[in-house]
Specification:
Layout (H helix, E strand, L loop, with lengths): L3 H10 L2 H16 L5 H17 L8 H19 L3
Helix pairs in contact: 2-3, 3-4
């Protein structure tokens, strides 16, 4: 487990949108070895909702647009997946 001071010192340098974007990238890369398009689609939809529901006082507006784009792409991935 990481001490809270390490996490706090990391988050002080970045805004919450950048931390969420890093979490999205890491979750997507972590799901790639499973070779399941439905898991990638569910991950995309989930982070789209998270980006949209994040208060705009904490993140710049372009993260809202990223959330909208992820909510458009996620269901398309889900629909076109075979497994």
């Amino acid at each position: 487990m990481l001490p809270l001071q390490v996490i706090d010192s990391f988050l002080l340098n970045y805004n919450i949108g950048q931390a969420l974007l890093l979490a999205f990238v890491l979750a997507t890369v972590g799901a790639l070895p499973l070779k399941s398009t439905k898991i990638i689609a569910a991950n995309t939809i989930l982070f789209g909702v998270i980006f949209i529901l994040t208060p705009q006082a904490l993140v710049p507006t372009h993260y809202l647009f990223l959330g909208i784009a992820l909510l458009v792409v996620g269901p398309l991935l889900w629909t076109t997946s075979k497994n």
